[in-house]
Amino acid sequence: MKILELREDEFEEKVLNNKNKVLIDFYADWCGPCRMLSPIIEQVADEVTGYDFFKVNVDNCPNIAREYKVMSIPTLITFSEGVEKNKTLGFHSLEEVKEFLEK
Questions:
Q1: Which pLDDT score is estimated for 2?
Q2: DSSP code of 100?
Q3: Residues designated catalytic
Q4: Cα–Cα nearest to 48, from 20, 10, 6, 29
């Protein structure tokens, strides 16, 4: 599954007004751990139902990163009905990401 990269002007519509659960992968192109996590998130998106998956490039969307206090990357944040539910920092294995989504 291709994960949509959000722009700042799409965030409200795609995340805050979304009735589904959402996982956002905050990343940057220059971040090694982010590049390692990306295929894992794509695999999770193929295997897990009930979530919409998005990426936010912190260099292109600094206001969103600041609003959600993303101080290091990669950061994963889940939302439910537009409300932030959980956050985790750093690289995670496939199993760890799946466990994170179950919280």
A1: 73
A2: H
A3: 31, 34
A4: 20
